[in-house]
Amino acid sequence: MLGAYQGEVERIMRGLEDRLAKGDTDSALDWLDSEMRDKLPAEVSAAVRDHIRNAWTDAAMSGVKPAQKTGTEKLPSAIKWFDAAQNYDYGALYGDYAEEIRQSVLKELEGEGDPYRSITVRARRAAGKAGEKLSKPEVENRYRMVVSNAVNKARNFSQVLSMQELGFQELEIVAILDQKTSSICRSMNGRRVRVQTMADFVNDVLDTEPAAIAKSFPWPKTTPQGKTTQVMDALACKMPPYHGRCRTTVVVGREERIVTRNGDELTQPKMPEAASLADPADARTKRQEALLRWQDYHDLTASEFASKVNALQGATWGHPEALDEHFKKHVKEFSGDGAPKNVKEYVALAKNVLTGYDRMFVYYNGGRPRTMFYRTKENQAVVVDDSSSTIATFFRPKKNMFAQYEDTYVEVIP
What we know:
alpha+beta, three-stranded antiparallel beta sheet, 16 helices, about 50% helix
């Protein structure tokens, strides 16, 4: 249907995504109408407009319109999709309170009131009626988990079917990266998957009896590793939610690259020599660590690699309460007009390095994966802990220390 105009439609949808993220749906849809009118032929504009308008107004997610699994009756939102396709096991412990959970899901999808408060109130009500089977905290916890997962599943499933209907070929898995992110979602974040693969999975789930879903499509128990095609073949549950209270979503896949402040495109991890280490045992350890870090990335596509690295640019300080002490420790390393005078300037300068660096290294520190963003001229280094997406430190390394980094860390090069 989109034909030669698919690239233009994708550009418009990306622009719509950016505008809707700011929360002003009316302005976003006005912009959409203008772009459709000016950039696309009338027949293409008319064929696509309703799909995009309904999906973004109701779901405000990735710019796709949910569709029922049969493909014959089009549903305008994740809300109606969820209400029509209730293939969810709400848990026998709740008995007649499945309707309570359904209403909580719909309320959150509709964005009515405070979702956490609404779910909490309903959870406590269900807990009070559940008898002695579970303690009140256990019932509340399970209730919240079921609701949050049902909301996530309704949004993700409906979007995948709509991506398929609109002709998109690839989607991206996007995790919220913070200290709560599971290792499973962190590994899946940034991976690109064929829309058809996910659509087949969605339809398989919808064709399965609710009581058999958990057994037929169990959540992954180990962190996925390797090429995405191999990971998807191995996973029974191919798309989020991947675990209780999973926040991971899916969006239309787009090309992404790692670009330095000089405009250089970084594309591949390079193994270091570790020749400067006099101790053979130390050299072997460092080289083994470097090999493991290199393996973290070498199986990924260019866009997957870039998505994982670029996501770290939004890292925040892991221990904000210790910032004053951290600043005092490193401020003496800085000098000149650009030297930070206080904690606020120190944090701002670190953020500038994260978004404007010219070299990048990846390595392990005490078994934790880390990424160093480095400015050569200024000799400034920001280290991000990948497993928590937090800034571990910001400093100016001594020359002899940095020479060792170059010889023992995996550098991502053009």
